[in-house]
Design goal:
The protein is α+β, with helices and mostly antiparallel strands and 314 residues long. It is built from 7 helices and 6 strands. A hairpin with an 8-residue loop joins strand 1 and strand 2. The chain is elongated.
């Protein structure tokens, strides 16, 4: 969205202040934005203006479809999603209301947990995206005009402010132990179920060949691990060593040489060979050492052949 400078309005000082705001909003139109007056409670004389227009951007977003989304600016911190939904539900059924700190911000999924939220409430002025179920509701909302300011705080869902809000926040930060334990138990049960399903899928994938006859080797291996054979001590404890449940196969000298060769090859790929002076010096030193080693090996081989009387120099 392009930044649009809204016309500065002076609050009326007469007794008919809300009606003056209503008249101002009915004539307001800047950069495609319309305005609607709102107030916190029925007895409030001060009004607040919300600016809105249809949401049209080049990027496609499933959570903000262009033909059904209304873009709302200047949303105050105390305004809730329920208040915005009640305001624009007169134009059509509202599917969802999303709050963001700035236009085009990321829309987070709703928190499934009561005690461990993944997102924090926006405590400053914000923007809202109102998603309708039908495109016709968006056309009605674009031309919305009110005869009186809309009250944000409803009787069934009041907006708590001031000291009552902080007392409520204090109470929410100290949850009931029984409810907290119940949520933790349900989370762990769901986690165990998900891990079990993943393990079964990997096991099935490792046992059944694909269309071309290949068998996928998973990190669990084709065969299950060996059962524990360790005996507990007098107190019932089992000592777990760093070698695991079953001892690994001993590594031969050939295997050691192959492992060192692979490690050296990996290290040579990461480094620039013969780039620095010390690298050139070290490479020459290694080459001379290899020549000397080969010379000594050849001498031993010739001596062995002489001892066996199979030396034929010509």
């Amino acid at each position: 969205h392009k930044t649009v400078k809204m016309a500065k309005t002076t609050a009326p000082t007469s007794s008919g202040e809300p009606n003056s705001y209503v008249k101002l909003c009915q004539e307001f139109s800047v950069g495609g934005f319309s305005a609607v007056p709102v107030k916190l409670r029925p007895g409030c004389k001060a009004c607040h203006l919300l600016y809105f227009k249809p949401h049209h951007v080049r990027e496609t977003d499933d959570k903000r479809p262009a033909d059904r989304t209304l873009f709302v600016l200047n949303v105050p911190p105390y305004c809730t999603q329920d208040s915005v939904q009640r305001l624009f539900s007169r134009c059509g059924k509202v599917q969802a209301v999303h709050f963001c700190e700035r236009p085009g911000g990321q829309i987070h999924a709703e928190d499934q947990s009561t005690f461990f939220p993944t997102t924090q409430d926006i405590r400053t002025f914000k923007v809202a995206y109102v998603v309708f179920e039908k495109p016709s509701a968006l056309k009605k909302a674009a031309g919305l005009k009110l005869s009186e300011p809309f009250v944000l705080s409803a009787a069934d869902k009041p907006i708590v402010t001031g000291m009552r809000k902080w007392c409520q926040k204090y109470t929410q930060d100290r949850p009931d132990v029984t409810e907290l334990q119940s949520e933790l138990d349900s989370f762990m049960a769901e986690y165990d179920k998900r891990k079990k399903e993943e393990l079964e899928r990997e096991k099935a994938r490792g046992e059944e060949p694909d269309e071309e006859g290949w068998i996928t080797v998973t990190r669990h291996g084709r065969t299950p691990g060996a059962p524990r054979t360790e005996e507990p001590d007098e107190e019932g404890w089992i000592t777990v060593t760093r070698h695991g449940r079953t001892p690994g196969a001993p590594r031969t000298e050939a295997m050691e040489k192959k492992a060192l060769k692979r490690e050296k090859k990996k290290r040579s790929r990461r480094e620039l060979m013969n780039f620095y002076t010390f690298q050139i010096r070290e490479s020459k030193r290694e080459h001379i050492a290899q020549l000397r080693k080969k010379f000594e090996e050849d001498k031993e081989k010739i001596a062995t052949m002489k001892a066996n009387r199979r030396f034929r120099p010509y």
